[in-house]
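Page 47, continued from p. 46.
Same chain as before, 306 aa.
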Amino acid sequence: MTSYFLKRMLGLLPTLLIVALLVFLFVHLLPGDPARLAAGPDADQQTVALVRQDLGLDRPLTEQFISFFTRMLHGDFGTSMRSRRPVATEIAERFMPTLLLTLASMGWAVVLGMSIGVVSAVFRNEWPDRLGMTIAVSGISFPAFALGMLLMQVFSVQLGWLPTVGADGWKHYILPSLTLGAAVAAVMARFTRASFVEVMQEDFVRTARAKGLKERTVIAKHCLRNALIPVVTMMGLQFGFLLGGSIVVEVVFNWPGLGRLLVDAVSTRDYPVIQTLVLLFSLEFILINLVVDVLYGFINPTIRYQ
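Result:
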């Protein structure tokens, strides 16, 4: 286990190097001149040139990339072109709202999604299965921005029960977490059902039933653990998606998180912020996949790591 963990960690640096290079090239292909945006629409060419020199954009792309990657390895992600503040400070202020929103969304989505999936598998082809899968398909099909606007219209505008924007208290988390977690709950339900249906057809499940064990014991003790491995994989991927892909929901609810920060950075061509955020999202996916692989050994002790 330890050697496997160390190998995965050693493979992290070249992966980040490739991602950093691709992100750097993509960012510099975006239309628009960040120096012009920073100087203002009324600035003359001399002022724009001075701003470009101050931002370091007048240097060759190779030199800019080497400088960015070297500083990143030392924990220096540069300065925001828009706010003139350290990028690390900008991200640190926005990280916790996004993390808490992600945890809230993932929490209820996993509980509800797995519950619907297990019930649908146990009552396969019966009305609970049809109802659960109808709900799951609806959750996947409904766009996040439309669901968010619908929830705001009903619970904020018409009923006045919940706030629409901001992250000042627990009530502010309800509507965004419901919007963000709806698709995840639907995916979890369908994935859990498929995994449970496959496991319930195995010989060891029939043997457990032949021994006279109660159906509840068979499902909880024999089916659940064996069906969890693909489900845990999906949970890890969905968690990474929520943590790095909550842009639409954060814009709809004006959430002060990383998604909103990325949208603002793209609109102003804030290269250091864009590059750092995309690298952060990539690192999150890599670490989440590593955690998921390690969890396999706890779920199924027969798995051995090489």
